[in-house]
Amino acid sequence: MILELDCGNSFIKWRVLAADASRIICAGVVGSDAELMLALNEESLNVTACRLVSVRTDAETQLLVGLINERFGVECACAQPVIELAGVRNGYEQYQQLGLDRWLALVGAYLHAGKACLVLDLGTAVTADYVSADGEHLGGYICPGVPLMRNQLRTHTRRIRYSDDTAERAQQKNGPGRTTAEAVERGCSLMLQGFVATQLELASEYLGDTFVVFLTGGDAVVAVDMAPGAIIAPDLVFKGLAAACPLS
Questions:
Q1: Are residues 211 and 104 in the same domain?
Q2: Is 165 marked active-site?
Q3: Is 204 found in the same domain as 114?
Q4: How far is it, in rounded angstroms, from Cα 12 to Cα 9?
Q5: Statement to judge: residues 151 and 122 lie in one domain
Q6: Are 128 and 57 found together in one domain?
Q7: Which residues constitute the domain of residue 14?
Q8: Residues annotated as binding site for K(+)?
Q9: Which residues does the annotation say bind K(+) (predicted)?
Q10: Could you give the CA distance from residue 40 to residue 64 in angstroms, rounded to a whole number?
Q11: I need a labelling partner for 64 at 20 to 30 A (CA). Which of 2, 16, 31, 147 fits?
């Protein structure tokens, strides 16, 4: 079995594949190394290989690598920054500064599409990346996602205090808010939609008339109706990770 890990700053996304990578045996999202090990211990797993991508510090990453090695007796293959991978050329002036998870997601998208693509990751932070038909990463954009916008308002504005349940109810409609919760939740949603709409316009300018849109991240569903034909791809990073760390 193959253990794959996407280690972000807040969460670890994990999945276990069959030895031939033909199917997903189990998967999940956890908030810490301890939770990951607990989740893996609850499954009857015979892990024989591991690959991971991490945006954490080297010390934090090595701590997790050590835990995996101790538990399963395998060495983890860790994705590293590169100038070119699987036909995609890194577009950053200093390629090492492009977030590894973001890099692997756009590589995964290009591998899937085989032509120009726009990758929209709508998570805690929102990113957009452009890849040309010949695999040139043209760069991208980063801005706060809905969770960050919401939390900033709720944390730094004394009069904005409401529960998660109230937030969920407020999101059920898009009309002008008649409570603070409605105004905040719907305003953040509209800002996200505006970002997506702008990216779709820019993609036509930079990529031409034929390109594939990929949506990933927790708020991808918000953009589905705005991008007909878009591919919802929650595992883009893992697809790129397989290219970065082949096991044979």
A1: yes
A2: no
A3: yes
A4: 8
A5: yes
A6: no
A7: 2-78
A8: 121
A9: 121
A10: 13
A11: 147
Q: Is the pLDDT of residue 169 over 90?
A: no
Residue 142: pLDDT band (50, 70, 90) is: very high
| Contacts for 9 with CB less than 8 Å, ≥ 6 apart | 55, 56
Our count of domains for the chain comes to: 2
For the entire predicted model, the pTM comes to: 0.89
End residue of a domain, out of 45, 78, 111: 78
Q: Which one from 58, 101, 165, 209 is the annotated catalytic residue?
A: 101
Residue 123 structure tokens: 């998570």
- Whether 58 is in a domain gets the answer yes
**What DSSP assignment string belongs to 196-247?**
HHHHHHHHHHHH-S--EEEEESTTHHHHGGGSTTPEE-TTHHHHHHHHHS--
Classify residue 28 by its DSSP letter: E
Same domain, 139 and 174: yes
DSSP-assigned letters across all residues of 85-103 = ETTEE--SSSGGGS-HHHH
Question: Do 78 and 54 meet the contact criterion of CB atoms below 8 Å apart?
Answer: yes
Q: Is residue 34 part of a domain?
A: yes
Which residues line the annotated binding site for ATP? 6-13, 124
Q: Can you say which residues are annotated as belonging to the binding site for substrate?
A: 92, 99-102, 180
Q: Residue 59 belongs to a domain with what CATH number?
A: 3.30.420.40
Whether residues 55 and 139 fall in one domain: no
pLDDT at residue 78, rounded to an integer: 96
Convert the pLDDT of each residue in 84-112 to its tens digit: 999 999 999 999 999 999 999 999 999 99
Q: Tell me, yes or no, whether 244 lies in a domain.
A: no
